[in-house]
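In response to reviewer comment 3 from the previous cycle, which asked for concrete evidence that the modeling workflow produces usable outputs, we include below a single protein chain processed end to end. The sequence was submitted unchanged, and the resulting structure tokens are shown without manual editing.
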Amino acid sequence: MEVFVDIVIHILVPLVVLIFLTLVVILVVNRMIYEVYKFRIKSVKSKIDKFLTSLVFSPFDEDEFAKKIKNFKKKIPFEKSWCKEIILSEIINLKQNLKGESSNHLHFIYEQFELYRFSIKLLNNPLWYVKSAGIYHFKALQYSKGEPAVRPYLKHKNKNLSTNAYIALIALASDKLDFLIDYPETLSLTSEIKIMDILHSRKPPMPSNLKDWIHSPNPSIVKMGVKFMVYYNFSISKEDIIRLLKSESEMIRNEVIMATRNLYIEDAETILIQQFKSESKKNKIEILTSLGAIGTEVAENFLSQLLIDTTDVDVKLATVYSLNAINGHYFESSFTDSPEVMAMVRHVKDPYI
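The workflow returned the following structure tokens.
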């Protein structure tokens, strides 16, 4: 027992203390290295910010810009990937916040810093999310020269990567957006928002095959096709409206219902009335809103009866909105003996009530 105690006191305890002190030293040294590294990055970023801002707002001269960039690269650790990432991030930030000539010079700056090679290097990485970072560079900069490098990933087996490639090509494609009809996956709401945002900012020409999008076997493309038709004011035929309202996809039916008012398709009035009873509550309210925009006396008669028959408060309020939109004087002589309806009418005419 005494021997064991002696071993613990003279060997194990000092060993534990030594290990503890070693770990403390390692942690302290690592923290110091991290702080030095962080300070260095902050210092380099500050230099890059100042240089790029000065360059972008200077009169554009290719030779002068190239010379300045060549000299600046010697003043920073340009060979380091983290340094190139900072430059890229700042160029992208400038691209997203500047307009006009200043923004147009950024592609030249991107090339002079040889960052195209860096983006391509990321695309050649075996990891899909690293490839996506390279695709993002081209998309964010709207760098159309990157289009050929992105196209091969349209049919990539990784769903996330192929989605990113499709969205990027909407921003990059030098021709029309006809290729989008072949998109094989389901578009998320986030992707739809990104596509429409690019559409509004870039304003590309209307796809020549847009009329075929609403016949795609992919419900996401059908829905996107309807959105595009609204954007390009490309009217949907009565036959196609009937067909699409029979779709099993509620999101497609919802999009078509909204399109009838956005495109002001008067022929859809009777179709929407017939469709009303078979729709979900959400789509019923959209139908009522559309009838308020395109409705005639036919819709007015339908809505009058609906206001009597329905007990759902939300549907009833939407009906009041629609009737008032079709005929602003309707409630001066109708439903005046219904306190509930009159309260809704007052709210419709003055939302603050």
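DSSP finds 19 helices and no strands in the chain. We consider this sufficient to address the reviewer's concern, and the full set will be provided in the supplementary archive.
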